[in-house]
Design brief:
Elements (H helix, E strand, L loop, with lengths): L1 E10 L4 E5 L3 E2 L18 E11 L6 E8 L2
Antiparallel strand pairs: 1-2, 1-3, 1-4, 4-5
Length: 70
């Protein structure tokens, strides 16, 4: 499957925007704890991150979580 992140936030002087990042391939057998970091576009103030786990890129949604950024 793949994991895809959607970042919702604001850019200086503009309305809310959503940025969908490229999917990352992963294989999960059971419960797994993942850690990573990503570079966001300059000037973007994130408000929330949606983590989507899909069967394949553009495929069926398996799981989703929304995390608030403070």
């Amino acid at each position: 499957g793949v994991m895809q992140l959607v970042v919702a936030g604001t850019r200086a002087g503009s309305a809310t925007t959503n940025i969908t990042l490229n999917p990352v391939a992963l294989e999960l057998d059971s419960h797994v704890q993942l850690a990573s970091s990503i570079n966001l576009p300059a000037g973007l103030e994130p408000r929330e991150i949606t983590v989507r786990v899909l069967r394949s890129a553009g495929g069926e949604l398996v799981s989703m979580r929304v995390y608030r950024v403070s």
